Structures are given as structure tokens and as C-alpha cells.
Amino acid sequence: MSSFVDHLQILPVPSVGGVRQPDGDHRPGGLGMLTLADRLVARGWTARVEDIGFDKRLPERRIAESYARAIGDGVLSAWERDRFPIVLSRVSHGALGVVDALGDRTGVLWVSPRAEYRRPGLLRRSAFDRTTVAMITGRGERDSLAVSPVRLEARRVVLLGGWKSGDDELRALAEDGGRVLAREEVDGLGEAVGDVDTRRWYLHLDVNALHGASVPAADEPAPEGFEPNALSAAIEGALAGRTIGCVGLARYDLNRDRSGRTAETLVELLEHVAKVAGGQPRPEEAAGSAAGT
Q1: Is-contact 281 6, C-beta < 8 A?
Q2: pLDDT for 262-287, tens place per residue?
Q3: 271 in any annotated domain
């Protein structure tokens, strides 16, 4: 992708636990792909959408790899067409396909209150979705259906947050070479990112990492989360001038929020990241525009 200017490509993962979630007022699965696209269009962006969904019930590990292939193809296609890819996901493992597409020199900035970094065992079973960081680095196993899965060295991962993760897991990630920054260490984000030798970055934002009042639609709204504007500023300071390959938003359902507050917060974050990545909206084209495919 040379310069995407104002073109965004939005890709969804609307399933939880292997089951596609009800659309409600925000298709698909509560992610609000068109809801967010229309708001971005109103701000001068060209927002294209691609409806990805698997209606057949499958084991979660199996459906995760189906989405990984679809999302990976979508990210590569967006780059080929000079569009900036945005992944909206009800779960965290929507990140697998992004990493597969961007390759093994990808840097991952993972903003989340929880990242379980462990090997599964009989006495230590974790929710599959919570172990995505471990699967990205190869510490956790992916399903046999995975096609050419990319595994990153842990030193390419920067975790910001992690206050709901166990100390042993954070320590294990750090011992493997990952950078772990607590909430109060956000000022060190630029240095942590600068230490990673990478071609491009994937920014993964768990919506539960934001202050709960700003995102009522989060799966687990938390009063101790990051204030959105402060987090946006920290991300800009860390990633400005670097190649951002994709941004992902995960773990929310807009149907929980009738006020529209969550949608507004997410649109502002997405626009900010798109600008940091080098994009520029065209306000003169906003009037009368509509999201397309």
C-alpha cells in the first residue's frame, strides 16, 4: 500500500464461541460495521465494507481459523487496493488473520486489560479467545485447520494494560522477550515501540481497555480503563512515522448502547489512527456520500 489517502476497508468477525451473534440494530453481530462506516463517511472518509460471516456452528478453534483465512485475505486485498484495513471483532482472535497476512516481521501493539499468556493444560484451561497473544507467538497452539499460520517472536509484541492478567503470565511474556507496560506506564509506550525491529505494526485495541463510561457497549466496561483521548495521544506518539498495517477493535456489542456513545468513541479512535497511519479525509466529499463495498 503506497498511500491510502481516504480509503478504509472494514472487515468483521461477528462470532463468539463459534456462534455468529444476533445482528440487532448493528449488523453484523452487533459490531455495527455500517453504523461506523456511515459515521466515517460523514467525516470525509471513503469507507468500504465486506460482510464476512459463517452461520454454521463449529468448534471455536475451527471457526477461528475460518475467520483467520477470510480476514487475512481481506487485509491483503485492502493493501493491494491502497485501502487501510480495519477489523471489527466480537472476540480477540480476529487478530490471527491479520498477523498471518502481515507476516512474521509484524510488530503487535496489544492494548487490553487481559492477555492470558499460557500453555493450555488439564489443570489450567483458559477461554480460547483470551489466549490469542500466546497463539500469535506460538506459545499456544492453533487449530490444525490453520493455513500457513504466522508465529511472531515475542519480542515483537508490546502489551499495554494487562491489569486483569496474572503476574505469572505477564512475567512469562516478558521472559520470552515481550514488552509489558502497565496502565501507569503508558508514557513509556514510545520507547517500547521504538525498541521493536519491524516492518509494520498491527494495533489491537480491546474496547474493554477504555474507560467504561466512554464505551458502554464493551463486554466488560471498566472504570479503570484508559481515557480515549489520552490513549489516542499515546498511540500517536508511539506510532507516528511508522507503518501501521491494520487496526483492530475487539470485544463489544453496539446493541448494548442506545445512546450512541460507544459508536462515537470508536469512530474518533479509528479516525485518529487512520490519520496517524497517513490517511487524510476529504471533507468536501462527505455530503451525500455513502459507505460502499
Answers
A1: yes
A2: 999 999 999 999 999 999 998 666 54
A3: yes
> Which DSSP state fits 23?
-
* Cα–Cα distance, 96 to 109 (Å, whole number): 14
- How many independent structural domains does the chain possess? 1
pLDDT at 88: 98
Whether the link from the prior residue into 28 is cis, omega within 30° of 0, is: yes
Asked if the structure places residue 247 within a domain, the reply is yes
CA angle 94, 132, 124 (to 5 degrees): 140
Rounded distance between C-alpha atoms, residue 9 and residue 74, angstroms = 8
Any bridge partners for residue 9, and if so which? 48, 85
CB atoms within 10 A of CB 281: 20
Torsion sign, CA atoms 63, 68, 73, 75: positive
Element housing 39 (H / E)? helix 33-42
Would 144 be classed as within a structural domain?
A: yes
| Closest alpha carbon to 93 in 124, 60, 125, 51 | 60
Domain contains 26: yes
3-state secondary structure of 42: helix
Strand 157-161 and strand 19-20: the pairing is unpaired
Q: Give the SS3 label for residue 154.
A: helix
Beta carbons within 8 Å of 10's beta carbon, 6+ residues apart? 33, 36, 37, 47, 48, 49, 50, 86, 87, 88
Q: Domain span at residue 87?
A: 7-285
Residue 125 maps to which CATH number?
3.40.800.10
Judged on CB neighbours under 10 Å (0-12, 13-18, 19+), 157 is buried
pLDDT at residue 1, rounded to an integer: 59
